[in-house]
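In pairs, describe these two lines:
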Amino acid sequence: MRIVAVSDIHGSMKMVKRLAKNMDEIRPDLVVISGDITNFGEKSDAKAILSEIPFKKAAVPGNCDPPEIVDVFEECDTVDLHGKRAEINGLIFAGLGASNPLPFSTLFTYSEENIGLILDSVAKGADVLVTHTPPYGILDKTMFGHRGGSEAIREIVDKHRPRLSLFGHIHESPGVEKVDGTVFVNPGPLKEGNYAIIEIGDEIRVQRHHLSEK
C-alpha cells in the first residue's frame, strides 16, 4: 500500500495544488492528513482544500481546525479517523485529532486523560495510528528545545504497538524514527512544501520529499 502522508497544511491552497500536480505520478492508494488542514478556518475552507486532492483520503483535525470540519470529510472522499477506526486496503487505521493542552489558545485540544481514553478505545490491533500530536519523546522537539508530544499517545503506542504512527503538529521536528518495531513519521508541514511517501508491505519504507517553489 502506498500512502502520501501530509500534515499542517494551515490553509495553504498553493502547496495543496502543487502536491496535487504530483499525484498522477505518485499514484497513492491513500493520502493521510494528520491535522491542521485549516489555519483557524471554517468547514468551507477544509472542504476547498480536501477537494483539491484527487485521491482517497483519511484525516483527523488538528488544534488549529474547528472540530466541525469532520462534517465535510465524507463528501470530500475522506475517511474520518477522529476517535475512530477504519479498514482501508486490508489495513486497520485508527486515529485522533486535536492536541494535548498548550500554553496558548487554539481551537481544539483534549486533556491527556481524554486522549488516552479515546485512543485506547480504537487503537487495539491497528496497523496505522494517525494523530495530530506526536507521542512524547519522538519527533516532538520544539524550537525552544522542549518536548511537545503527548504522554498519553506515547502510552498508547507503547501498549498497542502499531506498525506505523503518523503525526505532525511540531513543525520543527520532521523526520522518521523506528522504536520498538513501530515506524514514526512526522512529514513536516505541507505549508512549507513537506510530505512523505510511505510504502507498506512486509517492511515499511519512507521517503520524505519537498515541493519545489517552481
About this structure: The two ends are 29 Å apart (CA to CA). The chain has one domain: 2-210. Residues 128 and 164 are 5 Å apart (CA to CA).
